[in-house]
Write a structure and sequence with these properties.
alpha/beta; 5-stranded mixed beta sheet; elongated; binds ligand C2E; binds calcium ion
């Protein structure tokens, strides 16, 4: 170009392009400040890119203005601005190159060829331009103030970086989410078109503008998180992301979870007034709080304790206001307050923690989580992991499951010849775990049958040994959960275990509780009938604890009805109850069921139970549950 007749490119320059870019960068910064953004590893790179672009647009304005008014300005200053302007743009491209490596699952080592190529591009471009000022080639201003503008190396550098990034994207295209890939490539096409068009018009005003499109793509595709505009919450993936962020940066948050059961598991919208309350609550009590909606009924408000040193008082105030709102709207809730915990953050386990805590909470109550709750949760996870491992190994001899036994007194003979098998878990980390802890877990997560099989097997093995030693063992009862009976293979499974050990079927009884509904009942009935034909006995456990349905009970051929300890206690309390229990027991006896009383603790209990048609007695009065090996001390040898 040089100084030929037509207008020089910098004389065409107007600052509109750069000002627009600066305005965009400011908008970016505002959005990054006020909105919830996904702060993954690359978030800082995005901020750096915006910074570079801001610097480039600022120095571009300075550089081009100075070129047009150069007579009065030192050449060095013009060079400095020009270099910074170009450095800003190339750095922006270089950072973009590093940025896209993350979604392509390349780290700096795996992608080092590209990093080296990028650094080489920066160095070559930098050296070429800056040495040109000194050695007077390319762009320079001579001693007469004349501008010399050699070959347009800037365009080459730009194409080089675009080529490098597009090449990288296409080479690993299978590793990137298609939408993001197309978004970035589309933004490059737009940039490139703009760059070409301005070149054709001998323009330079829009150079920095060409670099903004990829940033818009990244902001929109990766870092933006749509708000629920009704209540101002961000979604569950943003929550996961926030947890990753605080874990990685060793930060802490206060979490306040509100579960509104009416909305959970539904697609119901919140009524307008509730939306308003939520929006108000989000900002009123904590500085910089962010609201997440984790499911339709669950909202979690989070705040930074560093920004809210008095968060405990704020929480109290918030609860007070919540109480007032509740009095107006009367929607059932459960509220949990907690401070994040590193282990739970590491495993991304807050939703499960909240579910776990809520399952133990009363309706319309507030729980403040402390060490104790975290420890209980940790223990639960540990037990669950062990249960999973027990299932995986499928070892009927698994040493972690132990059989305890409670001997049962047979009134007719005055001897102990039956017993109930009771399960215990002995774990390396926590020692003995009791059934009230692990049975509900095993039932909920579907591990219960794996445990029952072990108990049944170990019980059979022990019975076999006792029989071999000539002990008089009538039978031992084993507890099963009704849910286990649903499995079509249940009967075969039970029989196979007993037969494999090789003891008579009638040495085993199965204890089950009453069924909850008609379909469950029909299954139980089928199973009981099948196994009873094969000689296995059945006990009805915990009679008197639920709503007993006599019609159903009578339809099942139980051998023994176990009267729950609560009935024994009730008899001690008043005469009316005693009459009722006594009549029930008589009725069962008359119909050929044997009655067993559980939880006999005292002499008085014993006397009363014997008066009330008892055939068997079980309870602490005779023995606490003992390891099954100790049954030898209770059972007697046949003559
Ligand atoms: P359950 O079947 O009703 O077992 C009787 C429970 O009452 C046992 O508690 C026993 O220790 C306790 N007990 C016995 N005598 C007395 C007494 O005189 N006074 C009082 N207050 N309690 C007495 P444990 O061993 O903690 O078992 C609790 C529950 O866990 C059992 O209730 C049963 O529902 C379940 N469970 C235990 N073992 C198994 C098993 O192998 N499989 C299944 N599915 N459930 C089991
Ligand atoms: Ca039982
Ligand atoms: Ca019982």
């Amino acid at each position: 170009m040089g100084t030929s007749g037509y207008i020089l490119y910098y004389e065409n320059y107007t600052p509109v392009g750069d000002l627009t870019v600066m305005a965009c960068c400011i908008v970016f910064m505002i959005l990054m400040h006020v909105a919830y953004n996904i702060k993954n590893k690359n978030y800082r790179l995005l901020m750096a890119m915006i910074g570079m672009l801001t610097m480039a647009s600022l120095t571009s304005v300075g550089y081009h203005m100075m070129l047009n008014a150069r007579t009065s300005l030192p050449t060095g200053l013009i060079y400095a601005f020009r270099s910074l302007f170009h450095l800003g743009l190339f750095m922006n491209m270089f950072l973009l190159l590093i940025y896209v490596m993350e979604p392509l699952q390349l780290d700096l080592r795996a992608g080092r060829r590209y990093v080296i190529a990028g650094v080489a591009g920066l160095v070559v471009m930098g050296l070429y331009e800056n040495l040109g000022y000194v050695f007077k080639y390319g762009f320079y201003i001579d001693e007469f103030g004349m501008i010399h503008d050699g070959f347009n190396w800037f365009a080459i550098g730009y194409l080089y970086f675009v080529g490098l990034i597009v090449w990288l994207l296409l080479y690993y295209r299978g590793r990137m989410v298609k939408q993001i890939l197309y978004g970035i490539i589309g933004s490059f096409i737009m940039s490139f078109a703009m760059f070409a068009v301005q070149g054709m018009h001998n323009q330079v005003s829009f150079t920095t503008g060409c670099f903004i499109y990829p940033l818009i793509t990244l902001m929109y595709m990766i870092h933006s998180n749509p708000y629920n505009i009704e209540i101002g919450a961000v979604n569950v993936s943003a929550f996961e992301d926030m947890i990753t962020y605080i874990y990685r940066h060793k930060k802490d948050r206060i979490l306040m979870s509100l579960m509104m059961l009416e909305f959970e598991g539904t697609g119901k919208h919140y009524p307008r007034e509730i939306q308003e309350v939520i929006r108000d609550f989000t900002h009123r009590f904590f500085k910089g709080a962010v609201l997440f909606q984790l499911s339709n009924g669950r909202m979690v408000l989070t705040a930074d304790p560093e920004k809210n040193p008095d968060y405990k008082e704020s929480a109290q105030v918030m609860l007070k206001h919540f109480g007032e709102a509740y009095n107006t709207y009367r929607l059932d809730y459960k509220i949990v307050f907690l401070r994040t915990n590193r282990e739970v953050s590491k495993n991304h386990d807050y939703i499960r923690l909240l579910n776990y805590l809520e399952s133990k909470m009363d309706m319309n109550s507030v729980q403040i989580v402390g060490e104790k709750e975290y420890e209980a949760f940790h223990n639960m996870n540990y037990v669950l992991a062990q249960l999973e491992d027990i299932r995986k190994r499928g070892d009927l001899n698994d040493p972690r499951i132990e059989v305890y036994c409670q001997p049962v007194l047979n009134i007719a003979t005055g001897k102990y010849d039956t017993a109930e098998a009771l399960m215990r878990m002995k774990l390396p980390e926590t020692g003995m775990v009791f059934p009230d802890v692990f049975i509900p877990l095993a039932e909920e997560f579907g591990f219960i049958h794996d445990l029952s099989r072990i108990i049944l097997f170990k019980t059979c093995v022990r019975i076999k040994k006792l029989l071999g030693q000539n002990f008089n063992v009538q039978r031992v009862s084993v507890n099963f959960s009704v849910s286990e009976l649903r499995d079509a293979g249940f009967c075969d499974d039970v029989k196979k275990i007993i037969d494999d050990v090789g003891i008579p079927h009638e040495k085993i009884a199965i204890e089950i509780t009453e069924s909850q509904n008609e379909s469950e009942f029909r299954i139980v009935k089928d199973r009981v009938n099948e196994l009873r034909q094969d000689g296995i006995k059945f006990y009805l456990d915990d009679f008197g604890t639920g709503y007993s349905n006599f019609e159903r009970i009578m339809e099942l051929p139980f051998d023994i009805i176990k009267f729950d300890r609560s009935l024994v206690i009730a008899c001690g309390a008043d005469v009316k109850s005693e009459k009722m229990v006594s009549h029930l027991a008589q009725m069962f006896s008359a119909m050929n069921y044997s009655v067993l009383y559980e939880g006999v603790e005292t002499e008085q209990d014993e006397e009363k139970c014997i008066r009330m048609s008892a055939r068997y007695l079980q309870g602490y009065k005779y023995s606490k549950p003992i390891p099954i090996d100790e049954l030898v001390n209770w059972f007697e040898k046949t003559a």
